[in-house]
Amino acid sequence: MEGIHVGVIPDITLFIQVIIFFIFMFIMKKIYFEPYLQAFDERERTIENLLKEAEENKKKTEEILSKVDEILNKTKIETQKIMEEYHHETNEIVSTILKKAQNEAEEMIEDAKKEVERVVEIEKKTMDKIIENLAKEIVNKLLLKEKAA
User: In angstroms, how far is the first alpha carbon of the chain from the final one?
Assistant: First the structure.
């Protein structure tokens, strides 16, 4: 029994399989994993760049919106001032027109009063002449009656 040893004999196939596995892993790493990981990395960089760009665009948009709001507020204030000015000017124009119309109406009333007074004066003179003529006729008739009597 000296020729038979019961012991562990190293099996070379296991080492060969381990070496083949490492060679397979190296090839897979070069052919499949590295390009796949590079694509993932590239995708992550693209996503990060797009997120940064989106954030910048968001900030720019917020700045533009704040400027637009500021311009709108200024425009509202200016519009309100203009409207107040026009309202004031319109009130002044209406007031001026009303005063002018009132003055013209007063002048027309004064002219009409003067015309009425003139007509009344003419009528008074005419009535005085008529009364005087009637008085003369009455006196003449009375004198005629006295003479006749």
Answer: 215
Residue 5 has pLDDT above 60, yes or no: no
Helix or strand holding residue 115 (H, E): helix 34-148
The residues, any chain, with a CB within 8 Å of residue 6's CB and separated by 6 or more, are none
For the segment 54-63, what is each residue's pLDDT rounded down to a tens digit? 999 999 999 9
For the chain, the domains span 12-117
pLDDT mean over 59-83: 95
Residue 127 half-sphere exposure toward CB, CA atoms < 13 A: 6
The string over 22-37, giving b where at least 16 C-beta atoms fall within 10 Å of a residue's C-beta and e elsewhere, is eeeeeeeeeeeeeeee
Q: Alpha-carbon dihedral of residues 107, 112, 117, 122, nearest 10 degrees?
A: 130
Instruction: Output the CA–CA distances (angstroms, integers) from residue 17 to 12, 14, 23, 24, in the order listed.
Output: 9, 5, 10, 10
0.70 cut: is pTM over it? no
